[in-house]
Hints:
Number of strands: 0
Oligomer: single chain
Radius of gyration: 19 Å
Strand content: under 5%
CATH architecture of the largest domain: Orthogonal Bundle
Helix content: 55-70%
Amino acid sequence: MNDTKSDFEGIMEGLNDALAIAEGRAEPGSYRIHVPENVDVREIRKRFGLTQSEFAAAFGFSVGALRDWEQGRGRPAGTARVLLKVIEREPAAVARALELA
């Protein structure tokens, strides 16, 4: 029974930590943001039905970099991968932030 209580307390502590991060109450140095290793740039762009030029212009990427990423000649840097994941999952939030809506 004691192990179950310890597991439960650990889970609750993790949930409380996650909530603090989501609400902006956690100290920035107390957690780490996961940066995805791979992002399917072409698939994200195609979901929007945009050309490479349109997608690059809409989200602030260079067309050359976008082309290289899609053709496997390069890979987005960490910050670009994070932005691409946000574009993929919450495009309306990105549009609002960039005043595209």
